[in-house]
Amino acid sequence: MHPDDPDALLFDCDGTLVDTLGVHRAIWSEIFARYDFAVTDQWWDEYAHVALVPFVRAVVPDASVELCEALNVEGMDRYLEVIHLVDPIHHVIDLARAAHGSVPMAVVTGGYRDVIIPTLDAAGITHLFDHVVTADDVIHSKPAPDLYARATSLLGVDPARCIAYEDSEIGIASALGAGVGTIVDIRLLGLPG
To answer: Structural domain boundaries of the chain?
Structure first.
């Protein structure tokens, strides 16, 4: 596949299309403060992209799945209250805008639909994408290949002829596992948001 002629473009959301990590960190810092835990840079770097249950259990080792889910709902509700603080990552969004209408595109995210759609709406970019594939659509989220496999199936394209834009190791592993032909790690682009 020539990178200038993909069958589809696949974009992660958090950290790729929009910079949500700072907002999420502030919210989880508030939640975890109730457990006398301070979210450090080192801890956040290690756990920011970890699935919910191990993420919460890194702070509250005996947390039940129900508690993890309750804290997640609290965090999502708070996020929706401050969604206006999320920053678009302009150089990646510009790629999507340039391809809109000429190349099929999907958002492929481990986030949940009831948070991701409002995030894309707040950035004014929901309309750019043919599909938004979220953790609600699969049994196994990233780093499993299921999200990317689902997106390429919905788009009716060969994953080997697609380009995925990612910002995390688990996202890259997910795209690789699904056979995506080209993966762009946006952390290596060296461009400002």
So the answer is: 8-19+87-188, 21-84
Domain at 8-19+87-188, CATH homologous superfamily: HAD superfamily/HAD-like (3.40.50.1000)
Please check whether residue 10 is in contact with residue 95, taking contact to mean a CB–CB distance below 8 angstroms. no
pLDDT of the chain along its 193 residues, tens only? Answer: 445 689 999 999 999 999 998 999 999 999 999 999 999 999 998 998 788 899 999 999 999 999 999 999 999 999 999 999 999 999 999 999 999 999 999 999 998 899 999 999 999 999 999 999 999 999 999 999 999 999 999 999 999 999 999 998 999 999 999 999 999 999 887 654 4
pTM: 0.86
Q: Which of 7, 12, 146, 167 is catalytic?
A: 12
Amino acid at 54: P
**Catalytic: 4?**
no
β-pair partners for 8: 162
Please tell me the distance from the alpha carbon of residue 151 to that of residue 133, in angstroms, as a whole number: 6
d(Cα 185, Cα 182) in Å, to the nearest integer? 10
Q: In what order do the strands lie in the sheet with 105-108?
A: 131-133, 105-108, 8-11, 162-166, 182-185
The answer to whether 60 and 130 are in contact (CB under 8 A) is no
Would you give the distance in Å from CA 83 to the centre of its chain? 15
Rounded CA-CA distance 160/152 in Å is: 10
